[in-house]
């Protein structure tokens, strides 16, 4: 007997159900409803359908009509109507057995249930275990009042397109008769670049190429999303032009890697497609406070990473690649200024919510944008290992981006937003402030212990499909 046997026996041993006739009062009620509908057909044709029924019907049909207002009304009314009908049927059956006359049914008066306004809805919302739309009405009001601030302090950070560098400024000109000679020079320079550096360069490039994901992320944030795709609001302008500036980064790195001949471009392109298709979950909850704290941290982290690859490229002898990474790092630095200014204003206008939000993002920890990258081969080549984790380990080992950089960024933002000096906070915000001030030292201790363990451990050799399955120590 299988696991379902006991249950099956219970059902097989039951006696067949005998269908019982419905009480006469139910048949009378159904007949009355049909009569109402027939009577409605005789109403003037200029009356709307629902109005014709209301004019002809007693309460039960009118009650059903009024439940069209909202889905919540329908559920409330239906539940009340079913419960009332059940009680009425039971009452009529008892009276019929006693020979008494059934009392006249009293109609329920529907209660109006208004749909919650988007700005005042209960928060947060939980969908599939994810927190959404956690911003309070007060927080959204703060953001709504920041349009002029964004015009005066955020949009000027953007550069006119004519004054921005373009990828072609760093690449061999294909129309030049010396194009092939310049490509040969580029390839000779990149021969000196070690594989572990290439892994970091490619990982950074793939991260930059997933730009559609980051635009989508900004447009999930309540209060600042671009509602039309071409909204003239300062927030809409910022998002589109920020994306336009960022778009040059992936283009330049991609073309440089392609010309170098050192990397497997098909595997890289596959990884980019997979990453964009997977998206990301920064755990910002559609909340502008959390969202802009995240971008403030992330832009600085990206600046640090590109700055380190720029320095290393020059050390390896590829000065042009050093300039490429340096130009990208400079853009990230400008963008960091914009996002930190937004959070500056949150702390100035609403220090309590800003402090709590900052602490909340630090508790969650900042998720790197490319944490879902997958080339379709890394796990197969390396016994189930995770591609992003191994890429991060290589970056940590050679000094492109380390745990100490994470701690440095945390300390920088705490100092930038003057966290320690803010006074007059409420209870939750004061606790968040205390937590934030202790956090960097805790992280440093953890990172130092982790570094000590890694120093004692034997490094593993891992194959990366990006460099034609060559091995790199992690």
From TrEMBL:
Please cite one Gene Ontology biological process associated with this protein.
fatty acid biosynthetic process
Q: Give the highest taxon in the source lineage.
A: Eukaryota
Its required cofactor(s), as named, are: Fe(2+)
Subcellular location as annotated: Plastid, Chloroplast
InterPro entries assigned to the protein according to its UniProt record, in alphabetical order: Fatty_acid_desaturase-2 (IPR005067), Ferritin-like_SF (IPR009078), RNR-like (IPR012348)
Name the segments for region: Disordered. 1-22
> Is Lipid biosynthesis among the key words of this record?
yes
What GO cellular component is one of the record's annotations?
chloroplast
Pfam families xrefs = FA_desaturase_2
Using the UniProt record, give the first listed, main subcellular location. plastid
Family classification: Belongs to the fatty acid desaturase type 2 family.
Oligomer status and interactors: Homodimer.
Q: What is this protein called?
A: Plastid acyl-ACP desaturase
């Amino acid at each position: 007997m299988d696991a379902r046997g006991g249950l099956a026996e219970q059902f097989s041993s039951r006696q067949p159900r005998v269908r019982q006739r419905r009480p006469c009062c139910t048949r009378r009620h159904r007949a009355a409803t049909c009569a109402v509908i027939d009577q409605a057909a005789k109403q003037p044709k200029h009356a709307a359908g629902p109005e014709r029924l209301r004019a002809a019907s007693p309460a039960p049909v009118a009650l059903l009509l009024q439940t069209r207002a909202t889905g919540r009304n329908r559920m409330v009314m239906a539940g009340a109507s079913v419960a009332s009908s059940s009680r009425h049927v039971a009452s009529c059956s008892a009276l019929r057995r006693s020979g008494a006359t059934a009392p006249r049914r009293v109609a329920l008066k529907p209660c109006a249930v208004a749909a919650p306004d988007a700005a005042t809805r209960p928060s947060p919302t939980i969908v599939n275990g994810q927190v959404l739309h956690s911003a309070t009405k007060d927080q959204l009001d703060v953001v709504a009042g920041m349009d002029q601030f964004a015009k005066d302090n955020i949009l000027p950070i953007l550069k006119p397109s004519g004054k921005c560098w373009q990828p072609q400024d760093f690449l061999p000109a294909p129309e030049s008769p010396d194009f092939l000679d310049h490509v040969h020079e580029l390839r000779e320079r990149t021969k000196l670049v070690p594989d572990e550096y290439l892994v970091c360069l490619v990982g950074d490039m793939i991260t930059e190429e997933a730009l559609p994901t980051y635009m989508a992320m900004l447009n999930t944030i309540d209060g600042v999303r671009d509602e039309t795709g071409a909204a003239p609001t300062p927030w809409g302008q910022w998002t589109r032009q920020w994306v336009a500036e960022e778009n040059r980064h992936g283009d330049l790195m991609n073309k440089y890697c392609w010309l170098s001949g050192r990397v497997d471009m098909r595997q890289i392109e596959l990884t980019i497609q997979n990453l964009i298709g997977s998206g990301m979950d920064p755990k910002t909850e559609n909340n502008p406070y959390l969202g802009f704290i995240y971008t403030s941290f992330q832009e600085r982290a990206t600046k640090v990473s590109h700055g380190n690859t720029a320095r290393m490229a020059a050390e390896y002898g590829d000065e042009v690649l050093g300039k490429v990474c340096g130009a990208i790092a400079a853009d990230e630095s400008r963008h960091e200024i914009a996002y930190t200014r937004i959070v500056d204003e949150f702390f100035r206008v609403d220090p309590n919510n800003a402090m709590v939000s900052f602490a909340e993002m630090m508790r969650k920890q900042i998720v790197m944008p490319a944490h879902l990258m997958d080339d379709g081969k890394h796990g197969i080549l390396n016994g189930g290992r995770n591609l992003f984790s191994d890429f991060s380990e290589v970056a940590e080992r050679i000094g492109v981006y380390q745990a100490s950089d994470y701690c440095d960024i945390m300390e920088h933002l705490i100092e930038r937003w003057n966290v320690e000096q803010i006074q007059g906070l409420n209870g939750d915000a004061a606790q968040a402030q205390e937590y934030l001030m202790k956090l960097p030292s805790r992280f440093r201790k953890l990172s130092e212990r982790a570094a000590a363990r890694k120093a004692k451990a034997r490094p593993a050799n891992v194959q990366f499909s990006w460099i034609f399955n060559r091995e790199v120590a992690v």
